[in-house]
Amino acid sequence: MSARPSGYQKFKDEEAFVSNRQEKAVDVSAGVLGKGAGAADFPIDQIPPNFELAELHREAWNVGTTKLSKRQKRNLQKHQKTQSNNIENDMIGKICDCCARQVPNHLLSLGCNNRDYSFLGAGMPLYFEYIKSCILMLLIIFVTSGDYNIITNIAFGKSCQVLNKELQGQDIDEKQFCQLSWATQTSLANKRNGDQFIDLQQMLNLISMITLILLFQYFRKEQRAFDAEIDSQTQYASDFTILLKNIPTDPTGLQNGDFDEDLKTFMEQYVQTYPKLPEIVDYEQERKQYQIQSKKPVTDLRRVVSVNLCYNLDEQYQLEQQKQQKIVQKQKILSSLYSQGKEPLSQEVQNDPQLVSIDAEISAIESKLEELEKKFIEGQDVKNYFLGQAFVTFQWENDAQSILNEHKLSKFQRLIGKKSKLIYRGVPLIVEEPPEPTDVFWENLHISTKQKILRRLFGYTITAIILAICGGLIYWLSAIQAESAEEQAEAIKNGDLKPNIKVKIIAQVASISIIVINALLAMIIKNVSQFERFSTQTGYNISLASKSSLAQFINTAVITFAISTWVTKNIYGAGGLVYNQSQVFVLNAIIPAVVSLIDASTISKWLFQYLEKKKGNKSVKTQKQLHELYERPAFDISVAYATILKNMYVVAFYASVIPLALIITCFALLLHYWVEKFNIARRRSIKYNYSSQMSIEMIEQLELVLPIYCGTNLWWEYAFLGSISTEAIIGICLGIGNAILPMHEINEAVFPMQSEIDEHLPIQEAEAGFLTDYCRENPATAETARQQYKIRVEKHKQQKQNMDKMFGDA
C-alpha cells in the first residue's frame, strides 16, 4: 500500500501519457539567427522569424489543461500505434520556450461545466456564475412585479392614443401627447392616470426589493462555497506562497550581502517550528528509501523552495525600450534591402555595414540586460533596486497556510497599529496572501501610494470630461429630435396624420450613437486605468470594470434621463424618453452580441498572419513580434464585467417605467453568456489567473442595482401621481442600507466556511499543473527561470517514474 499523498495515483496515470508525448515533443529548431537574452534557448529577436515556433506558441496559449481526458488517452494510444497524427496533436505536450507554457492536452468545449474553468483561477468560473445570477435577478424582478406591470399597462392603460381623425386639426402638445406604439403601450406611461394600479405596483416593487436582498445573501454564500470547493480541488502557485512586505532594504548584516538567500535561510529555520503532517512524513520516508535503494545521496526536502524578490524594473525597461528602438531601425534597413531585390540570409545582407553596426549596438544592450538579470538572480548588490517585498514559496501548501493563519493581519488591524510577530532582522514583516503570478504588475510595484492617488484623481477628472462631451452630443441629438416632434404636432394641426419618419430615424441614430459612445468610453477608460499604475491585474480590472460600467450607465441612462426630464421635458411624447430608451434596449441586446460573434479582432489577426506568412524569409518581424501576431486575442474580464454591470444598472433604472426591458436584458445577457463561452473555447487566449476577489467586488458593485431600482420607482411615482407612497420610501431605505452595510462580512459571519486541502503534494509534483509561477513571471528572473523550468519538470518526471517502478505503482 503506497504511503503517498491522496491523488498520487491519478497524477501518475496521467503523467505516464504526458511523458510518452514529451519524448516525441522535440523542440522546433530555431536556426542560428537567434541573438540576445536567452538566445541559446529561444531566439526572441530573430529576424526572419520561425513560423513553426509561432504556431507552437499559439497552441500553448489555447484555453485548456495539461491533463488528459480518457478520450484523449485512447486517441493518443491509437495515434502511437498507427504513426499518424495531425499538426495540432503533434504539438500536444510540447513546451513553448519563450513563455514556458505547455500545449494543453484537453481543450474546453462550448458546453463545458463552469467548474472546468477553475484551472484559470476561481474568478473564471465565478464570472459565468455571475452572469447566471444576473439573469436570475431579472427573472425574479419580472415575476414579482414586472409581469404585473406589463399586463396592466397593456390591458388597462388608456393614457396613450393612436393618431386618428379625431385629432385632425387639433392643437396638441407634442411633449404631452403619448402616441400609442409597442414601446409606449407596454410602458408605465400608458397607465400614468391609473392610481390604483400604481399603488399596487409599488407594493410589488417592495416585495421584489426584499426578495433581491435575500437573493444577494444566497449569491454570496454560493460564491464563497464555490470558491472554497475550487480552492480545495485545484492547486495554484499562490497556494504554496506567501507575500512578505516591509523587508529591510539595507544590506548591512546580510550573509554575503545576499538578500534572497538570507531571507530563505531565515524562513527555512522559522518554518521548522511547525509540525509536519503525517502524509508529508510518509512521503519523505518513501523518498529516502528510494534514494538509499538507488544509491543516491540522502537529502532532505527543503521546506522553503524559493524566494523571489521584487525590484524596481525601470532600468530594465529603459534598456528594453532602447533595444526595441534599434530593432525598429534594423527592420527598416532590412525592408529597404529586400525592396532592392536582395535575398534574405545572403552574404550581401548579413554583411551590410548598417546592419552590422546595429547588431553590435543591440548586443551591447543585451549584455547590459544579462548583467542586470544576473544581479537580480543572485540577489547581491541590489540595494538600489530591491523594494522590500518578496514572494516566498514553500515545498508544502500546509506550511504557507500555517504562516498566513498565524501572522496575516487585516487592514483594520494594521490601521490601529498592530504588528506581525514574524520578526526579521529586527523588523516586523507584513504577511499577506499573494496575488497569482500573472496577476502582478511587476513594473508598477515601485510606484508610491501618493503617486497612485494623484494618477487616479487625474483619471477620474478625464472620465468626467469625457462624460460631459458625451452629454453634449446626446443633448444635440435630443434637440434635433424635439424639433422633429414639433414639426409633427404642427402637421397634425394642419390635418396631416402621417407619422413623422424623421423622429423614428433620429431615435435609431441616437440609440446607435449611445452604443458607439459606450464602446469609445470603454477604450478611453481602459487607457486611463492603465495610466493609474495598479500593482495587480485584479486591482486594475476592478477599477476598470467599476469606472467603465458607471460611465456607460451615466451615458446610457442618466444623461438621457436628465435631458428628457429637465431640458426637452419630453418623457412619453413623440421622440421622448420612453420611445428612445426602448430602442436603446433592443439594439443594445443585439448589436454587442453580433459584433462579438463576428469578432473583427480575430478576423484581422487571421488576415495579417496570412499576409506575414506569405513573406516567408522576407518577413522583418522579430520572433517575439510574430508570436504576438499569432496569439489569439486576449480575453478581457474587466470589459466583460463592465458590460454586464452597465446592463444591470440601466435596466434597474428603467424597469419600473419600461418593464419590457427586463425581458430584453435577460435575452441580452443570455446571448452574452453563450457568445463568451464560444469565444473562449475557440478564439481567445487567457493570460491571467483570475482570483475570486474580482467576483466578490463585482457582487458589491451589483448591489447598487437595489438603490437605483428603488430610487427610480420613487421618482416615477412622484412624476406621474405627484405623491410618494410609504412602500417606495421603505424600499429606498432598504436599498441604500444594503449598499452601505458590509454585507460580505455579514455573510461570512452568518455562513462560516473554510477551505480544506484535499491532497498534500510537494510543489515539484503540483507545479506540473501550474500555468506558471512567480519566478517565470517576474521580468527580473523570467529568462533564467523559464530555461530552468523545462529541465526541472523533465528531471522530476523521470525521477517519479523510477519511484513508481521501485514501489510497484508503475
From TrEMBL:
Keywords annotated in UniProt: Membrane, Transmembrane, Transmembrane helix
Residue runs in coiled coils: none
Pfam families in the cross-refs: PHM7_cyt
Residue intervals of the CSC1/OSCA1-like cytosolic domain: 304-444
GO molecular function: calcium-activated cation channel activity
InterPro entries (alphabetical): Csc1-like (IPR045122), CSC1/OSCA1-like_cyt (IPR027815)
One Gene Ontology term, aspect cellular component: plasma membrane
Transmembrane segments: 134-156, 200-219, 457-477, 505-525, 553-572, 584-608, 651-675
Name of the protein this chain belongs to: CSC1/OSCA1-like cytosolic domain-containing protein
Provenance organism: Paramecium primaurelia
